[in-house]
From TrEMBL:
GO terms for molecular function: ATP binding; dTMP kinase activity. This is Thymidylate kinase. The gene is tmk. It catalyses: dTMP + ATP = dTDP + ADP. The keyword DNA-binding does not apply. It comes from Nitrosospira briensis. Belongs to the thymidylate kinase family.
Length: 208
C-alpha cells in the first residue's frame, strides 16, 4: 500500500451515536484550516460500494455473518482503490463515516466472528494502512436506539437486539483501548454543543 500525503480521519460509533451529525463539523474545522476535504462513508463511497450498502442494510435479506464480513471488505477494497488512496495521494484530507474498526465492532463483536479472520481480511485489503485519526462517538445502547428510532425506520443492523449493540460497543471500546494514539473516545451522550466542542479540541490539536 502506497504512503499517502494527505490524512485519513474516520468516525465510528454504534448506530445513533451522532457520527453523521458531526461529520460536517469535522469537515468545516479542517476547511477553516485550509485543507481540501473529501467526505465519504462505508459501506459505500463508490458505485459498487453503494450498491453493496443497499443489500447489506436491506431488512428483507438474511446474510451469513461471514458473507457480511466479506462484502464489507470487498466494498472497502473498492473504496480504497477508487476514492481514499487517490485522494490521499493528491494531498487531500479524507473523512470517512466508518472504516475497518466497524468490521471489528459489528462483525467481530456483534456477530462473533473471530478477530484473527478479520485481521487476515484487514491485512489482505489494506496491509498496514490505518486511519491517522479515529473519533469514536460513545453512547449507551439505549441512547443510540432512542436517537435513531426518532428519525428513521430500522435497517438490517438497527433491528438487532440490545445485546448485539452491547457487544458492538464493547468491541469499539476495546479497539480504543488497544490503539489509544489513533482512536479518541468522544462522550457523545453530552448535549450537541458540548460534543462539538470535544470534537473541535481533538481535531484542532491534530491539525497543527
Ligand atoms: N449530542 C447529541 N444530543 C442530542 N441529539 C443528538 C446528538 N448527536 C446526535 N443527535 C441526534 O441523534 C440522531 C442520530 O444522529 P446521527 O444520524 O448523527 O447518528 P449516526 O451515528 O450517524 O447514526 P447511524 O450510524 O445510524 O447513521 C439525529 O437526529 C441527531 O440530530
Ligand atoms: C463499515 C461497516 C458498517 N457496518 C454497519 C454499521 C451500520 O449499522 C451500517 C452502516 O450504516 P450507517 O449509516 O453508517 O449507520 O453498517 C458493519 O456492520 N460493518 C462495517 O464494516
Amino acid at each position: 500500500m502506497k504512503t499517502s500525503k494527505g490524512r485519513f480521519i474516520t468516525l465510528e460509533g454504534i448506530d445513533g451515536a451522532g457520527k453523521s451529525t458531526h461529520l460536517s463539523w469535522v469537515q468545516s474545522i479542517l476547511e477553516d484550516r485550509g485543507k481540501n476535504v473529501i467526505v465519504t462513508r462505508e459501506p459505500g463511497g463508490t458505485r459498487l460500494g453503494e450498491a453493496l450498502r443497499e443489500l447489506l442494510l436491506d431488512n428483507s435479506l438474511a446474510i451469513h455473518a461471514e458473507t457480511e464480513a466479506l462484502l464489507m471488505f470487498a466494498a472497502r477494497r473498492e473504496h480504497l482503490d477508487k476514492v481514499i488512496l487517490p485522494a490521499l495521494d493528491r494531498g487531500d484530507w479524507v473523512i470517512s463515516d466508518r472504516f475497518t474498526d466497524a468490521s471489528f465492532a459489528y462483525q467481530g463483536g456483534g456477530r462473533g466472528l473471530a478477530t484473527q479472520k478479520l485481521e487476515e481480511l484487514e491485512y489482505w485489503v489494506h496491509g498496514n494502512f490505518q486511519p491517522d485519526l479515529t473519533l469514536y462517538f460513545d453512547v449507551t445502547v439505549e441512547l443510540g436506539r432512542q436517537r435513531i428510532s426518532a428519525i428513521k425506520p430500522a435497517d438490517r443492523f438497527e433491528k438487532e437486539q440490545d445485546e448485539f449493540f452491547e457487544r458492538v460497543r464493547d468491541a469499539y471500546l476495546e479497539r480504543a483501548y488497544k490503539f489509544p494514539d489513533r482512536v479518541k473516545v468522544i462522550d457523545a451522550s453530552q448535549p450537541l454543543a458540548s460534543v462539538k466542542n470535544l470534537v473541535e479540541v481533538v481535531v484542532a490539536r491534530y491539525c497543527i
